[in-house]
Amino acid sequence: MAARTSSQKARQISDYPYPLGRYRGARKVAAVALVIAAISYCGWLAGWIFDWQIMANKQAFMSELSALSRPHSGIFRVLDFQAGLSSLVAGFIIWSISRRAVRRRGLALIFFGIFTILDCLFPMSCSPQLEVGCSATLFDLSRPFTDTVHEITSSLAQIAILWALAVTAWDRKELPGRRAVALVGVGINAAVAIAAIIPNAPVGAWQQPAILFWAANLLLWAGQISGPDYRRVQ
Fold it and tell me: Where are the domains of the chain?
């Protein structure tokens, strides 16, 4: 029994190679960046004020708020850029100071940040659901080049979200509550990915709660990296 206890203690010490106070500054920066990313990525809620037609259309992607032809589209591109940049910063810090599944989550955040920034740099030219003559066909090469790039980067950002959530949901060192929220996020974001390839599917109705659950996970991760239990899962 004594030998087993000593072995367990040794294993625990090796799991936590440095004291909690180390990297405190970096962890606070990552936590703040995650909070900013969560709030900014929910900027689509302002669409009910600035572009309610898209918000009320259950088949419209939230990216259509940022389409060049839409009023106030610059507001939503700035918010998405801020969300992407903040996620990139947080992901790099988490990837640099963490281990195991949390490190893979950091890598997923890095990719999410990169592809979200590219979404802003290559916005849609128009809203397929609201504007006559705006093609809604996936990867229609007859449309402007930016539309095709936007579809690719949006798809890759969605994959990065699913990756980060799946890593958290299947991480046995995570708290049950965080795993449950991540698992629900996996299910809803998977539904969005499936709805995106089904004609006339209510993708917008699924995307809105999917974004909210993604933002909730970002906030939970912010609390985790800045809290006392971070050593348990790093």
Answer: 51-125+145-233
